[in-house]
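Notes from hallway chat w/ T.B., transcribed later so I don't forget. T.B. wanted the structure written out for a chain they're using in a teaching module, and asked if we could keep both sequence and structure tokens in one place. Agreed to drop them here.
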Amino acid sequence: MNLPINTAMSTDGTIHAFEGARGLAALAVALFHFGLGEPAIVRIPAGYLFVDLFFVLSGFLICATYAQRLGAPGGLPLFLVRRVGRLLPLLLVATAAYVAVLDAGVLVHRLLEPDRPAPPLMLPAPTELLAVLTMSHALGLFDRAILNYASWSISTEFYAYLVFALLCLLMRGRARLFAFALAALAAWAVSAWASVRLRQCLHWGGCFDLTFDFGYWRCLAGFFLGALLSQLRPRAPPWRRPDLVLGAMQGLALAALLAMFLLVRHWPALGLAAPLLFGLLLLSLCADRGPLAVLLGAEALQVLGRHSYSVYLMHPVILLVWNPWRPDETGGLDKLLFLCGYVALVCWVAGWTFRLVEEPMRRRFNRYAAQRFGSRVPASVGQTPAL
């Protein structure tokens, strides 16, 4: 007997399949950056594309929770305070930790090997500090990724929230859907143009690998695609055997994604399809049912998903400490242990930063927002944060 599909969030505000998918994506990004070190221990082909899953997922969840509430009195300031509380505290901690650990390594190098040249200390300029504090550091203001290099996506996502809120305030119904679709398509077109024409990605590879310069457009493309899918997803099953159909949809979406990651090295243009393929995957998972949803709902992946923001922002700090001990080309067991140690350390540190920074600061900002602007907006998005 098949039960009707429920596309709403669970009572605790979490779509468990989304939570597990986010956790795996954050770990994949951490492994991608780990694989860039030498000697090579693991390779995640085009692992940078997992960031686009965060963008699509964020647009889906933010739209599902806030699209109909932003027009209410106090809706906009409450929304923005909650978003700042979700993103900024850990961003500041992770950035400060990155600078401190990097400079500590330079000082140790100078102390132990005074006769050998050492890189200069990383002393953030006032403009860099101000940009991080305002989360504007990846809006094309700099000619490089500054400080914690993974944080560029946090900057772009916060300003995607602003555009989303503005569209929700100004438009309703079909006009809003059209605006979401137009924003997604226009941003994707700019991202594709920057990848193909400026970066020459069809020749060099790295299509859609846009960060500090055109990363905002990349974020908008994924975010508004997710928002559009959130509004267009079926509220009731249009088929008689939903479990069977969901299983087929999830299998096809997963197969398409695997094909993209396996073939993108030979056909770089496939990377341009990442937001759409991730969107189709999330659409097949939003009912929180089906075989893939069951796998993603495993408790270990739920924990990883809850800690995914910390995994994402803290793994560059861990790499600064871990990479100097990287084993040489020989010894497969040594490499495996080194990899497992990295993953374990990232997860352990993420657990602590989640408990000490993320969760308490999120609750404080949410409490302030509720007291100052009203509490009609639920806490669900805070419990299912996107990167």
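Follow-up for T.B.: The radius of gyration is 21 Å. Might be a good example for the class.
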